[in-house]
Design a protein that fits this description.
This protein is an all-alpha fold. It is built from 4 helices and no strands.
Amino acid sequence: MVRTQIQLTEVQARRLRRLAAARGRSMADLIRRSVDVLLADPAAAGDAERRERAKGVTGRFRSGAGDLSTAHDRHLADAFRR
């Protein structure tokens, strides 16, 4: 193995420590596994980033429609007709 030094934010380090402890693994092992996943499918990393950005805007906008969750398909069809 090649020894490599990385820098994590405080939040990343704290969350990674907790995850490693919960799984009974080392932080280094989790990082190696994460790198393997990224290298196996580099496009998936972009997908994950897009999902995180999408989650960040969830609930920030209002449609004004009180039945949006129950009549989603109708509202969507109306939007595409415009």
